[in-house]
Amino acid sequence: MTGKERAALRAEANKLDTIQQIGHNGIGDETVKNVLMALEARELIKLRVLETSPVSAKEAASQLAEATGAEVIQVIGYRFVLYKYNPEKHKS
């Protein structure tokens, strides 16, 4: 992914609401499943790591990206943005 593409996705992510939170249980199978379903439906999602979480936002972002095949677009504070291209959404 080029820098311009990543910058465009970061700009688009500014408008997004946080759709998932990672709490004291950390990242489990259910979290991965929910994130994968959200990525398939939306492609670009914003998540938040609560202070009680055993992982940092950076760690959570890389773990979820690896588990779902997504790309980490941005990590700021407790929030991060993931992107996964869905060819089904771009069929004409």
Q: What's the quick description here?
A:
The protein has 92 residues and is α+β, with helices and mostly antiparallel strands. The protein contains 3 helices and 4 strands, in the order H-E-H-E-H-E-E.
Rg from C-alpha positions? 13 Å
Order of helices and strands: HEHEHEE
Strand arrangement across the biggest beta sheet? 1-2-4-3
Helix content: 40-55%
> Which fold name fills CATH's third level, the topology?
Translation Initiation Factor IF3
Specify the overall morphology.
Answer: globular
Q: Which blocks of ≥5 consecutive residues have pLDDT under 50?
A: none
% residues in beta strands: 15-25%
Structural class: alpha+beta
With helices defined by DSSP (H or I, 4 residues minimum), what is the helix count? Answer: 3
CATH superfamily: YhbY-like
Number of domain units: 1
State the end-to-end distance.
23 Å
Number-wise, the strands total 4
- Let me know the average pLDDT: 94
Sheet having the most strands: 4 strands, mixed
Q: Under the CATH scheme, which class? A: Alpha Beta
In CATH terms, what is the architecture? 2-Layer Sandwich
Describe this structure in words.
This protein is of the alpha+beta class and 92 residues long. The chain has a single domain, classed as Translation Initiation Factor IF3 (2-Layer Sandwich), CATH 3.30.110. Helix content is 40%, strand content 24%. It has helices at residues 3-13, 29-42, 57-68, and strands spanning 18-22, 44-49, 71-76, 79-83. The radius of gyration is 13 Å and the shape is globular. The two termini are 23 Å apart. The model has no long low-confidence stretch (mean pLDDT 94).
